[in-house]
Amino acid sequence: MQVKHLLLIATLVLTAACSSNKPEVDENLSETELYQQAQDDLNSNSYNNAIAKLKALESRYPFGRYAEQAQLELIYAYYKNVEPEAAKSAAERFIRLHPQHANVDYAYYLKGLASFDQDRGLIARFLPLDLTKRDPGAARDSYNEFAQLTSRYPNSRYAPDAKARMIYLRNLLAAYEIHAGRYYLTRQAYVAAANRGRYVVENLQETPSVGDGLALMVEAYQRLDLDDLAATSLETLKLNYPDHPTLVDGQFVPVVEEADNRSWLAKATLGLIESDAPLPPGETRASQDVIRQYEDAKEEIPDELQPENQDEVEEDLESEAEGNADDRSWFSYMTFGLFD
């Protein structure tokens, strides 16, 4: 980051701090004079002064000829003064008070714009921030607000711009889901990663991230040993996105490398000293600890407390288990014994 950018940010922050005092409004001004001065302030980009005068106009002349117009222009003044929450609050108030107003679509539009620019603050304009990796709350709000505008007022003059911004926001939200899914892959949260990819494929079609969503599903399902789901997702990826970066000569190449679950001692000695053997599929360290505790407790039982026919009981149990295993039908195997 260049020094001039730092100086510019510091200057703007100091200017904002110095101008944060509330402007005084002459109490002797008439309704027309207040409105005209507010217009002059808006035209000269003096948004703090314009906000003070528009609020004074509304409070002093709530039923005057400029009251509704002052409420509408107050939304714009808040938006231009980089006060998104105040702008959205003023827009919601105007929509609630004047749902049939001829320019209510403008209030919907400014409300969406306030959320749209909320993530693009002062610092974001000068720092190389990737918006697809940030919290998408404001982007999702903006998309929903523009959607309300386009659905309720499809012929509004602001509808074309709102639709164009909605396309951008859908792409942004889809890219965020992919970033989150890849993060889950690195954390070995494979179910969460697969869900992120499936959400993009099912709900965010026609975005550039759909192919990435399919690749995310393939990789997550492979790590979960769900071969059928991985194969289906891979075939869909090959069919619709044959040039996807994860496909090399028709073979799938994972984006995230397989996690190294070895202990720090094994890593430091390059595997010469292995502290623990690799876990079999489906087992965890916790389950092994429970089995080990059970076996230790069983061995500590004194012989006098053991049943006289202990060996016969164990043989009968083993033979019964083998017999049950042999007698199970193919349906029992397919349902893992749930319907036995």
TrEMBL record:
Region feature Disordered, mapped onto this chain? 298-326
Q: Which GO terms describe its cellular component?
A: Bam protein complex
Membrane topology classification: Lipid-anchor
Domain of life of the source: Bacteria
Keyword set, alphabetical order: Cell outer membrane, Lipoprotein, Membrane, Palmitate, Signal
Q: Where is the composition biased (Acidic residues)?
A: 301-324
Chief location of this protein within or outside the cell:
membrane
Q: Where in the cell is it found?
A: Cell outer membrane
CDD domains named in the record: BamD (cd15830)
Domain Outer membrane lipoprotein BamD-like as annotated: residue spans: 30-233
Family classification: Belongs to the BamD family.
Q: How does it assemble?
A: Part of the Bam complex.
- According to UniProt, the name of this protein is Outer membrane protein assembly factor BamD
